[in-house]
Amino acid sequence: MKYLEATVFAIICNIVINYAVSWSSNAKCKCINTKLGFLADCSGLGLTTVPWFIDSVISVNLSKKSLTKLPPEGRPPSKLMYVDLSLNMIKNFSTDGALTFSTTKYLLSLNLSHNRCLLDRDTDLNGTFKNLGKLQHLDVSYNSFGNRSNYCPYDVFRELQSLQHLHIDAVLNILFGKGFLVLRQLTHLKLTGLASRITIPNDFFVHLSNLIYLDMSAQWYRQDSLLTGLKHIESGNVRKLARFEILDISFNRKIGLCGFTNVTHDLIYLLRQLRFTKLNI
Predict the structure, then answer these.
(1) Where is it found, in Gene Ontology cellular component terms (predicted)?
(2) Considering its fold, how many domains does the chain have in total?
């Protein structure tokens, strides 16, 4: 009886595996069936091209690969909601002039962290997020460390009317201009690459009036010397953020008593939670 049960179980597993594989052109990708659709995991396979997926796939993990370009136009499933392209070698936001996400109007989360996508004036960004009106989470962090030609193209980001969470490199030239006023849903901001700018000026967040959560922790530098991260946060930085609740400035080991005092003075009536692990105060 046990042998029969084991045989039946093996047959069922084989059917399920074969059925799952059919949802991707690459047999090494793993698929999990959910009530909302299929979750495809192609991470860590070392692939240089993006496989095909049928439209029933709503989540694709393409992280830890060797991709140098975004998926070609039309390649992402039309019902895709979540895509992880982190830890690759992607250099551009477009593929041969075509818009990668032109058919993914339901995308909610896009992770492009730890790539080589520069937000500089030499990169063609026009229309990059044009069809991502429902996108809520965007991660483009750890792409631009030390690159001082970077800037924050608000004319591109303003397409993201539903954006709630943004992770981005705040290197030296990055500014959040007036165009960010239209991102009324943006409440969570995580900044990386702060070591290259040293100081956060007092008008840095003036156009991000709906922020609730701000993470300026220097987690990338935890194992380094004391001389890493931000050195100074100017007074008045977040005083006008009426909804502000949580600030994380942990591991910025250059911040001394003066910078810390500026933060606490501004937030005495606003802040609900302040995180400041391992500051040099």
Answers:
(1) plasma membrane
(2) 2
